Every structure is written in structure tokens, then in C-alpha cells.
Amino acid sequence: MSSSAPASSPQRLRATLIGGIAVLLWSLLALFTTGAAGIPPFQLLAMTFAVAFVTSLCVLAARGPGAFVAWRQRPPVWLLGVAGLFGYHFFYFVALGNAPPVEAGLIAYLWPLLIVVFSALLPGERLRWFHLGGALLGLAGAALLVTRGGQLAFRAEFALGYLAALACALTWSTYSVLNRRFGAVPTDVVGGFCGAVAFLGAACHVMLETTVVPQGLQWLAILGLGLGPVGAAFFVWDYGTKHGNIQVLGAFSYAAPLLSTLLLIAFGQAEATWIVALACLLIVAGAVLASKELLRKS
Fold first, then answer.
1. Residue 72: half-sphere exposure toward Cβ, Cα within 13 Å
2. Phi/psi at 2 (5° precision)
3. Residue-range definition of the domain harbouring residue 79
């Protein structure tokens, strides 16, 4: 493994902002997934990652045959990338299938906080109180959104789902942090990861689900997911976690459920409430607090 050299403040800020685009794209997940309602999870996973893979092939082909050299990477690179992308979705689907979505979703959304904590293990990184404080404020805001201000009810019979949700959070946070160790690997390799995830998703679909042929707007939703939240998002996240401020990216990731809720409100699929307003305040405050050092230096 090799990590990239520390970037100067302007370069680090730029990489962090690029990585933050992933959070903006992930905020479209709920809206697009609603449009694809009725498509089995693993089938949807396979189709959306296939869109991302084909798009990546077209982009690389336009650059010439030499562009595909980026895919010639050592096995550890492929193992981390494919396990991170596929493992996260696999455990998330298992969690939702074996536990109430509110509790499972909140446990799964521990990954931004875990990114901030795990980042202390990286060479050249320091975990400061404002990084952790910002992530905790974001978690509090996300908890308000997920539970809608209600109480959580963890029950023993859903233990499998809770464990899967925790595995989901650990998978994505571990992938995001370890990705820094492969800072010299070009981001173009993510296209290859998407192809492998599409294949694994299709295999799980064949074994576990019944195929549903998409109709009308479902096709547009699948295309939108594959180009944005399940496509471009993973490329910019790869670049951001390799070269940006990973603690800030972790804290800022809690903006995804907030922006997702605001989009649903804008499209008339959710209501604006005091809970949303308070969650907005907590998440924004957390992101600003976690970014304190980066913003001051820049």
C-alpha cells in the first residue's frame, strides 16, 4: 500500500469539495429510488451499476485504448473497491429485510461518524475535538430525520438486521478510510469496480429474486441512479477520500439525508416540520464545526 503525499491547503480544499459532490448526488437517492419502486433490490443494484459501468467504458474509450491502463491494478485494490461498493449495499439490503427500516437505517448511518473516528489511524491525520463534535452533531440531526422525532424501539428478534446494518456502516467507513492508502491509484478504476458490482448484483438477483421488467418512468429512474448517485458519486468520493480532508467529508455526509428530505418536500412527497428545521440546524452546524481548521487555513 502507498498513501498520497499531503496536499497543500488549496489542493486539499479542492479535493474535499469534489468529494462533497458525492453527498449532493446521494441526496437524490430517495427521490430516484421512489421512481424505481417495485424493482427488486438486487436487480436495481445490478441495473444501476451496469449503467455506471457502461458510461465509464464510453468515457475511457473516447480517451483511447491507453486509458484502460488504469484498470491494471493489484488484487488488493480490486478487493477493497469491490468489497466496499458491493458489501455496503449487500448488508444494507439484508438489514432492511430483517429489521424495521428506522432502526436499521440509523445504525447503517453511523458510517460518517466511523469515518471521522477511523481517520485517526491514517498517517498524517489528526483527530481533533471539532472533527468528532461536528460528526456527533450531524449524527444527532440525521437521527431526528430518520426517526422523525420519535423513539427508537430495538428488539431482540431483529438482531440479525441490526448486525447487518452495523456491518453496512463498518464496510463503507472502512473502505472510505483505507482508500486513502491507495492514493496513487487513478480514480478511473472505479468504473471497473462498478462492472464487478453489477455482475455480483445480477448473481444475487438470479438466486434470490424474481425479475421485474421496468416500465415507463422506472427506466428513467434507473438511468438517473446509474449516472448520478450510483455512478458519478463513487468517482468523486474516491477522489475526495484519497486527496481531501476525510474528517470534513465524514461530517458533511450527514447532509445527504437532510438534502434528500428537502428534495422530497420540494416534490410534495414529504412535509416541512420543525423536526426538519432542527435537523438542518444540527447538520449544518456540525459540518461547519468539523470544517473549522480547513476553512481557516484556506
1. 5
2. -145, 140
3. 22-127+151-245
Cell triple for 72? 491494471
C-alpha angle 170-82-15 in degrees, rounded to nearest 5: 75
Amino acid 235 reads: F
CA distance 131 to 117: 9
pTM, full prediction: 0.88
Contact 128, 262 (CB under 8 A): no
Q: What does the mean pLDDT of the chain come to?
A: 88
For residue 126, the 8-state DSSP code is -
117 contacts 169 by C-beta, under 8 angstroms: no
d(CA 262, CA 70) in angstroms, rounded, equals: 38
- Contacts (Cβ under 8 Å, ≥6 apart) of 255: 23, 27, 138, 283, 284, 287
Pairwise CA distance, residues 96 & 81, whole Å: 23
- How many domains in the chain? 1
174 φ, ψ to 5°?
Answer: -65, -45
| 90 within some domain | yes
**Sites in the chain below the pLDDT cut of 70:** 1-8, 151-152, 294-298
Angle, in degrees to the nearest 10, between helices 75-98 and 41-63? 150
Burial class of residue 74 (count of CB atoms within 10 Å of its CB; 0-12, 13-18, 19+):
exposed
Using the CB atoms, write b or e for 173-199: b if 16+ within 10 Å.
bbbbbbbbbbbebebbbbbbbbbbbbb
3-state secondary structure of 106: helix
The residue count of the chain comes to: 298
**C-alpha cell of 14?**
479542492
